[in-house]
Amino acid sequence: VTKGVILVGGPSKGTRMRPLTLDCPKPLLPIGGKPMVWHPLNALAQVPGLTDIIMIGFYEDSVMAPFVRESQREFPNIRIAYMREYRSLGTAGGLYHFRDLILRTPVPQHIFICNIDICSSFPFTELLAMHSAHRGVGTILGVNVPKDTATKYGCIVSDPETKQMLHYVEKPESWISNTVNGGVYLFDKSVFDEIKVAMDSKTECAAHNPLIELDETLQLEQDVIAPLAGTGKMYVCETRDFWRQIKTAASAVTASGLYLKQFQKSRPELLAPKTGEVIEPVYIDSTAHIDPTAKIGPNATIGPNVVVGEGARIANAIILDNSVIDKHAVVLNSIVGSNSTLGKWARVDGEPEPVSDVKGQISVSVLASDVHVAPETHIRSCIVLPNKNLPKNAYNQVLL
Ligand code: GDD
Ligand code: GTP
């Protein structure tokens, strides 16, 4: 028996996604036309014999309930649940807190664990194949990232022959390796013994050191995986498939494009058919109204009830529900929030996501909800907070 856990986090994090996350919690932000959390959930649902998917986070139950209901309808053969931490417990604290629930019958032999804020092909079959071939506790998805970004992640050194994890440092000060933690794991159920060891040792430390707070928080990366490195119990499954972290609005646009490209092969029925002015891949909600002379794509995601006027141009962009893109308006490398409008001949654009982080530079434009761009106005590389009228051009600014 196999089960899946998705670590969805909670409010107060995801600030780099603001202003989008002011209206929509990060797990539900549409990426490739689907809520962010749908992608790992859908991938888990395809694993043969998987019985349960448990989302763990500290959002209110009411925030996640509609998604749980919808996904339960989409995947009726899998038991889907959301478990709420009473406060942020870290990436292993929730697993520990809900261990009885995760391990209840049918008792799982294997548990997949996924971070939510990644875009991946979720190569579970490869992970399972590798995991089944060794006697370790866990197998971690390793991905290769550019050298100057590696220290933003959990860095892994492994034995090139045996693939055993030799060394793990979460977000090290200096470079260790370009192979990083992809935020996807396959664990044997015995991982709960390792988590208990970590929790006990934390409790022990706290008993002797008044500076350590005695609480239920625990980090999977630092407290469980790092100590397992070099013990022969953790293995690394390196993938060459696509993989990105989704922390910023720019990365949400990139991730959307990667998922749309994947849908072209795996789920073409989800995508807009290639008509005259559609450049694939494009996702258009069935309730959106697109003028046949508008040119859409590649990588455009058009949400529910969006109206796009004649001659409009949209590419590398996400348009959220109920927005109106008037005649001949242009949206490139941008996200347009709910209930926003672009007047005739308005232009909202930006730079595509940079390969490396350039501090303080805004790449894509992000309009929050209820933002209204006047006709013939140009907004370039701006972050715009909700309920704003933009009567004149703006470049490279945060518009509060
Ligand atoms: N339930 C719950 N409770 N989930 C949490 C909590 C918590 O208190 N804190 C974080 N998460 C979830 C997040 O939603 C996300 O899915 C995942 O745990 C990791 O989030 P962070 O702790 O913010 O770490 P990170 O994203 O900076 O880095 C992690 O992911 C990288 C890959 O994207 C680490 O695992 C890195 O090692 C890894 O390289
Ligand atoms: P992500 O969810 O990782 O995207 O967080 P973020 O985008 O909000 O990170 P940002 O750099 O904008 O700043 C938030 C700060 O909160 C960071 O310094 C995080 O290290 C810190 N933080 C880390 N873990 C937690 C947690 O569990 N809860 C909260 N509230 N904050 C955390």
Please give the number of β-strands: 30
Q: Which whole number gives the mean pLDDT?
A: 94
Helix proportion of residues, in percent?
A: 10-25%
Using only CA atoms, what is the Rg? 22 Å
Distance between the ends: 51 Å
Q: Which regions are unreliable across 5 or more consecutive residues at pLDDT < 50? A: none
Please, how many helices? 8
The unique ligands bound to this protein are: guanosine-5'-diphosphate-alpha-D-mannose, guanosine-5'-triphosphate
Provide the β-strand percentage band. 25-35%
Tell me the overall shape.
globular
- How is the main sheet built? 11 strands, parallel
Provide the structure class.
Answer: alpha/beta
